[in-house]
Design goal:
The protein contains 8 helices and 10 strands. By secondary structure, it is an alpha/beta fold. The structure holds adenosine-5'-triphosphate. Adenosine-5'-triphosphate binds next to helix 1. It holds the Pfam family ABC_tran. GO terms for molecular function: ATP binding; ATP hydrolysis activity. This is Thiamine transport system ATP-binding protein.
């Protein structure tokens, strides 16, 4: 379980409070108005942003004082998930540590992770030789190989076309979001939440609240979310 215990996060003059708990297993969508604090929330969980108050716990372990690399957390952003000068295999292998020359056993594990995301035999390529969707798959392979149970996706697939994005979401639901893991997915598209996230956290008006049943929340949204969902351009 991920616990955000009376957490208070601040960026400049912006302040976000969160006091909620999320059971492991499956995907939780994070939705809310632009500038509402979704990325701030993920930064607080990942450890990029130290809280003003409160604790972050995973499986009962207090993560609050830990640097990002020491947390059981993987993060995927919209861009910049792969180092362009490294091969795909080296990028994926970073999940096992900072070494670029991996022992044979680890090379096998990298190849196994690539196979799971449909990239068998592409380990020697550079990221630029892969399509956008394939780059997303390679980043997911690194998440899988890292074995870190909390996976944060911050608009990770927003740049992909609708069909490719759905493919990536299904890959997340099928491969990443196992019973021991928790995937938190920021998205501007309520359809993403409906597709793979049974639960949703709402981030609006300075608070992260929930989790709510996704279908219930979208069927009867509170005013701040309703106004956002009605907006013609939610990006
Ligand atoms: N580095 C920063 N310094 C000062 N203020 C910041 C910083 N980063 C974010 N903010 C402010 O914090 C607030 C929340 O931003 P955040 O990026 O968390 O929102 P968001 O919900 O992820 O937005 P979007 O959906 O547009 O990506 C905004 O008002 C933003 O201007």
């Amino acid at each position: 379980m991920l616990e955000l215990d009376r957490l208070a996060l601040a960026q400049g003059g912006f302040r976000l409070e969160a006091d909620l708990a999320l059971e492991a297993g499956g995907t939780v969508a994070v939705i809310g108005p632009s500038g509402g604090g979704k990325s701030t929330l993920l930064a607080g969980i990942a450890g990029f942003l130290a809280p003003q108050a409160g604790r972050v716990r995973w499986a009962g372990r207090d993560l609050t004082g830990l640097v990002p690399g020491a947390r059981p957390v993987s993060v995927l952003f919209q861009d910049g998930n792969l180092f362009p000068h490294l091969t795909v295999a080296q990028n994926v292998g970073l999940a096992l540590g900072p070494r670029l020359r991996l022992p044979a056993e680890d090379r096998d594990r990298v190849e196994g992770a690539l196979a799971r995301v449909g990239l068998s035999g592409r380990g020697g390529d550079r990221p630029a030789q892969l399509s956008g969707g394939q780059q997303g798959r390679a980043a997911l392979a690194r998440v899988l190989l890292s074995g870190r149970p909390v996976v944060l996706l911050d608009e990770a697939f927003a740049a992909l076309g609708p069909a490719l994005k759905d493919e990536m979401l299904d890959l997340v639901a099928g491969l990443v979001a196992g019973p021991e893991r928790l995937v938190l997915m920021v998205s501007h598209d309520p359809g993403d939440a409906t597709r793979i996230a049974a639960r949703t956290v709402l981030v609006a008006e300075g608070r992260a609240t929930g989790p709510f049943d996704t279908a219930d929340l979208l069927a009867d949204p509170p005013p701040a979310l309703a106004a956002y969902l009605r907006a013609p351009d939610r990006s």
